[in-house]
Specification:
The protein has 399 residues and is mainly α. 75% of the residues lie in helices and 6% in strands. A three-stranded antiparallel beta sheet has the order 2-1-3.
Length: 399
C-alpha cells in the first residue's frame, strides 16, 4: 500500500513523501530511518476528498492530532515556536489553521505557551493547559505531550470498546423490529382476508393479531408518522442536555449498571489526576481541574475530598472518606503514597479499573446478545405461528 507522508527535515523544511509500506506505522518508521520527522500520514486510497469530508464532519480543533504532531517535532529537536509554525504551514484544515495562528500570535507577543493556550479555552481544556504549565517549569513539554497522547488514547480505546459492543445488539433490534413491522403491515393483512369468512372461529390471539394487522394496513400513513415522530423524539432526547441528564440518572439508579458507570468515571478521574500529578501539578490544583469529568453527585464528593486535603488529610484517605474509591483502589493509592509515586499509581489504578470494565462489557455482551436474539425470535416466531394457527386447526379438522 502507498502512503503519503508530510515530513520535516532541517534542510528542506516541510515536504510530502510517498512510501510503499504494509501499514502506516511501517511507513513512518521508513521515513524516520531516512532522518525525516513524519507528523502526518494518509493512505493514498483515502484521498483528499475523504480527508476534507472528515474535517468538515468534525468541524473543530483536534487536540490529540495537534499533540501527536507537536510531540514528534519537539522530539526531533525543534523549538516550540518553530514546531507550531511548521504545523501551521502544512495545515489544510481551516479550523485547525485558525487556532494555530491565534496561538502563534500570542507566542509572538511574549506569552508563555500555557498562557496562550489558556486564552483559547474552546480548543485547549483547563487540565491540558495545567499539564503544559507544569511542564514549562521542568522544560520537558514533549514528555507532557506524550503523557497526554497516551491518556487520550486509553480513554478512546475504552470508548470504542463500549460503542463496538453495542453495535451488534442495536442492529439485531432494528432488524427484528423491521421484520415484525413488515409482517404486521403487509403479511398479516393478506392472511386476514383469507380468514374473513370464519373470523368468529379464529383463536383469540390470532384474532387480535389480524385486527392489529388490518389497523396498520388501513392507517399506514398515520402509523408511519407516529413511528417517525417517536424516532425524532428519541433523537431529540439524545441531543437535548436536560433529557440526556435525566436518562443518565435513570441508568445510574439501575443496580449493576450504575456501579459500572461509577467505576468508569472513577477510572477517568484517576487517570486524569495521575497525568496531572506526574506532570508536576499540585494535588489541590489538579482536583480543581477535573470536576467536569464526573456526574453531579460525584462532583459533590470530589469537593468534599478537596476540602479534606486542604485540611491536611492524605489523598487516599480523603478520597476514601468521600466515597471516591473502591476497596482495591484505596489500598493501591495508600501504597502509592508510601512509595511517593502517587501519579504513577493512579494511572495503574485506572488501568486496573478499565480492564474490569472491559471484562464486564465483554460478559454483558455475551449474555445480552443471545437473550436479545431469543426475544426477537420469539416475537417474530409468535407472529408467524398465530398467522398459521387457524390453518393448522383446519388441517386437523379435515383429518
Amino acid at each position: 500500500m502507498r502512503f503519503n507522508l508530510k515530513v520535516h527535515s532541517e534542510s528542506t523544511g516541510v515536504s510530502t513523501l510517498q512510501i510503499e509500506a504494509a501499514s502506516a506505522d511501517e511507513a513512518m518508521r521508513q521515513a524516520q530511518s531516512q532522518g525525516l520527522v513524519p507528523f502526518a500520514v494518509e493512505a493514498e486510497g483515502e484521498g483528499d476528498l475523504f480527508a476534507s469530508m472528515t474535517r468538515r464532519r468534525k468541524g473543530r480543533f483536534s487536540l490529540l492530532l495537534f499533540s501527536q504532531q507537536l510531540m514528534a517535532l519537539l522530539e526531533a529537536g525543534m523549538n516550540l515556536v518553530g514546531a507550531i509554525e511548521t504545523l501551521s504551514e502544512k495545515e489544510a484544515s481551516p479550523e485547525m489553521k485558525a487556532v494555530l495562528k491565534q496561538l502563534l500570535d500570542r507566542l509572538y507577543a511574549g506569552q508563555t505557551c500555557s498562557d496562550a493556550m489558556a486564552n483559547l479555552p474552546d480548543s485547549f481544556p483547563p487540565f491540558y493547559v495545567a499539564t503544559i504549565r507544569a511542564s514549562e517549569r521542568s522544560g520537558d513539554i514533549a514528555e507532557s505531550l506524550r503523557r497526554y497522547v497516551i491518556y487520550q488514547s486509553q480513554i478512546e480505546d475504552l470508548r470504542k470498546k463500549v460503542i463496538s459492543s453495542m453495535i451488534y445488539p442495536v442492529l439485531l433490534l432494528v432488524a427484528g423490529s423491521l421484520v415484525t413491522l413488515f409482517l404486521l403491515g403487509y403479511v398479516v393483512p393478506k392472511f386476514s382476508r383469507i380468514y374473513e369468512d370464519r373470523a368468529t372461529s379464529l383463536p383469540f390471539l390470532s384474532r387480535v393479531l389480524m385486527q392489529w394487522g388490518q389497523a396498520i394496513s388501513h392507517h399506514g400513513l398515520e402509523f408511519l408518522a407516529v413511528v417517525i415522530l417517536m424516532v425524532g423524539l428519541l433523537i431529540w432526547g439524545i441531543l437535548h442536555p436536560a433529557v440526556r441528564r435525566w436518562g443518565w440518572r435513570q441508568l445510574w439508579a439501575m443496580p449493576g449498571i450504575g456501579d459500572k458507570l461509577r467505576l468508569y468515571q472513577l477510572a477517568r478521574l484517576y487517570r486524569t489526576l495521575g497525568m496531572l500529578l506526574r506532570g508536576g501539578t499540585p494535588i489541590v490544583g489538579a482536583l480543581e481541574l477535573v470536576p467536569g469529568l464526573l456526574s453531579l453527585s460525584l462532583r459533590d464528593q470530589l469537593k468534599q475530598a478537596t476540602i479534606l486535603i486542604r485540611e491536611g488529610r492524605a489523598l487516599s484517605e480523603a478520597l476514601h472518606v468521600s466515597g471516591l474509591t473502591t476497596n482495591v483502589s484505596h489500598r493501591m493509592l495508600h501504597v502509592g503514597e508510601q512509595s511517593g509515586r502517587m501519579g504513577e499509581m493512579m494511572e495503574r489504578v485506572a488501568a486496573f479499573q478499565d480492564d474490569e470494565i472491559a471484562r464486564w462489557i465483554d460478559l454483558f455482551t455475551k449474555v445480552f446478545e443471545p437473550v436479545l436474539m431469543a426475544f426477537i425470535g420469539v416475537m417474530v416466531g409468535g407472529v408467524v405461528i398465530l398467522m398459521y394457527m387457524p390453518i393448522f386447526e383446519l388441517a386437523g379438522n379435515i383429518q
